[in-house]
Design goal:
By secondary structure, the chain is of the alpha/beta class. It is built from six helices and eleven strands. Helices cover 22% and strands 33% of the residues. It is globular.
Length: 247
């Protein structure tokens, strides 16, 4: 199962997303990913569907290269993305069941794939990817980590807004049981608005699977997969959906 309750980070706290994870933090990641996207499909890919687009911070750097359709389960996060990417199509939907009835040259799931914390959920998300990828198209899955690379960690950051609001966060990840298929993340947010401050906390449960399992799931879905480590030592999974003629 995926997380059993709506996550407040992506609902009532969504308006704070531009101070948590703004587009300016994704410049280098987009540059690193673009060659993989452009080589994943045959010909020159023009259309891209991103599942779990969140606030559209990565999409902001891809929209000059592709015609984007952006999907997320949260309408609140889509509102953030629409403000950042008004020229892009936005569609509300769950990545485990979405069916737009059309295909794209490329399908991308960024770190939202981490919320698929069971084999059943992961296979459903990859089936959605396959359903929307045209023959000869390509896919990219970008998990934060795989079983082999996970390490307990803490991170912090945040930004100030021109309107006087400010956010700071602490992110703490650990794996209570290395024998299961998920790990825990706790977020602590310090929020300042209208001269007052408050704190919010939230716990998430992320999927954690071996590298070979990711490759196996992509093969089962009809893709020829490969993986590489990016400059931040994270696995990037690329799959090609070759047409029956091999073109």
């Amino acid at each position: 199962m995926t997380n059993p309750r709506p996550m407040r980070m992506y609902a009532e706290l969504a308006k704070w997303w531009p101070l948590l994870s703004p587009p300016k933090e994704y410049v280098e990641e987009a540059e690193d990913l673009l060659p993989d996207l452009k080589s994943a499909a045959d010909g020159t890919p023009k259309t891209l569907l991103e599942l779990g687009c969140g606030g559209g911070s990565l999409a902001y750097h891809l929209k000059n290269h592709f015609t984007l359709t952006l999907s997320d389960i949260s309408e609140d996060m889509l509102a953030v993305s629409r403000a950042v990417n008004p020229e892009c199509e936005h569609v509300q939907g769950d990545m485990t069941s979405l069916d737009l009835g059309r295909t794209f040259d490329l399908v991308l799931i960024h770190d939202a794939i981490m919320y698929m914390n069971s084999a059943e959920a992961m296979r459903a998300a990859i089936a959605t990817v396959a359903r929307h990828c045209r023959p000869g198209g390509g896919v990219a899955l970008l998990p934060d980590c795989v079983k082999e690379t996970f390490e307990p960690s803490t991170d912090c950051g945040g930004h100030d807004a021109d309107d006087g609001r400010a956010l700071r966060y602490l992110e703490w990840s650990w794996d209570p049981d290395p024998n299961d298929d998920f790990y825990k993340v706790i977020y602590v947010f310090a929020l300042r608005e209208n001269g007052t401050t408050r704190t919010e906390t939230e716990r998430h449960q992320n999927g954690l699977f071996p590298r070979e399992t990711w490759l196996k799931w992509l093969r089962e879905a009809g893709f020829t997969p490969r993986s590489r480590m990016d400059r931040w030592e994270r696995d990037v999974f690329i799959g090609s959906n070759f047409s029956p003629t091999g073109k």
